[in-house]
Write a structure and sequence with these properties.
Layout (H helix, E strand, L loop, with lengths): L1 E5 L4 E7 L3 E6 L2 H5 L2 E4 L4 E14 L2 E15 L2 E5 L4 E5 L10 E2 L8
Length: 110
């Protein structure tokens, strides 16, 4: 994890690397100004003023938006998720993220 702070951490940017598993990011002062980036082996998910869950496993990288706006970048393409309970999926290295779609009930985090 890297954190860049300005003026006693009232603003800045945060970057976290997720190699396997799941992570829910709920922002604070730092991520509300310049955002936070979650890097996985297949994609980068950037969020600002939002709540997101990012998972990565052998099936790929998934970014689920719970509140606000999340962008998912992979393979030179970016998809923006603005609706809640919507996700993008990155399945291959260098591949484009899927178009935002509703999260299937069987995949919804509890």
């Amino acid at each position: 994890m890297s954190l860049s702070c300005q003026s006693q951490c009232w603003s800045g940017h945060m970057t976290v690397t997720l190699t396997k598993g799941a992570m829910r990011m709920v922002g604070g002062n730092v991520s509300h100004t310049q955002g936070a980036t979650i890097k996985t082996p297949l994609a980068h998910a950037r969020r600002a003023r939002s709540v997101a869950t990012v998972t990565h496993d052998k099936r790929g990288t998934r970014a689920i938006n719970h509140f606000g706006t999340v962008t998912v970048s992979s393979g030179g393409a970016t998809e923006t998720i603005t609706s809640t309970r919507v996700w993008c999926v990155g399945k291959s290295s260098g591949g484009r993220p899927s178009a935002p779609a509703p999260v299937p009930q069987t995949r919804s985090p509890r």
